[in-house]
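Quick start: what a row looks like.
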Amino acid sequence: ESRSVIPTVQMPADLSHPDQADLVVMPYIPSINGYDLFARPQEITDWGIFQAMQGLSWEQSMQLLQKVAVALASLHTNKLSWGEAILQNVVFTPEKVPLWVDAEMAYRNMTWEREQATDVRNLAVSSLGSFANGDRHSFDQDEVLHTLLTVQSAEVLTDLDRLCAEQMDWRQARVFEHFGKYRLGAKNRAHFEDCKVAIRGKLKELL
């Protein structure tokens, strides 16, 4: 709740119950999921009030993605990390404002710099995976990374480079195979490692 960018709603007294002590209530906000928008727009059958987002051009997609990156950088500025910074956890309002949702995961035993770097890496891999899985036959990987990374601080980018240079140990590999690749949007571990190499290549230009 402390990390939510959406104001919570006070539970009405007549609906409160001891078994619901940990329940968090939020207002309904019309929205469209970031992963659905970029990776599988062809599966959206009813665009409703989001007609303006149907058939986005590449330039429009990058404009929205930049808003997501700026929103993540803003969280970091306010000393908040997200824990699972992936496009599946981003929704857009009808006004094309990105909101980070599903703040149920948190980092443990990490420095503040590493928390930020992990957020950015996960968003980058998720974005690359989303566009690779989307209905476009090709996409500009370099532009995706440029859009995401140029709004981050030099300190975060420096630790991001260190993070992407690290190899998984066997525990991390097991977690990735059973959970990470599906959430991150990477096709497999090789694709994940390719994304890390691409991120480091872009960082050489920026640092």
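That is the whole record. Residues 112-133 form the longest helix (22 residues). The beta strands are 32-33, 90-92, 98-100.
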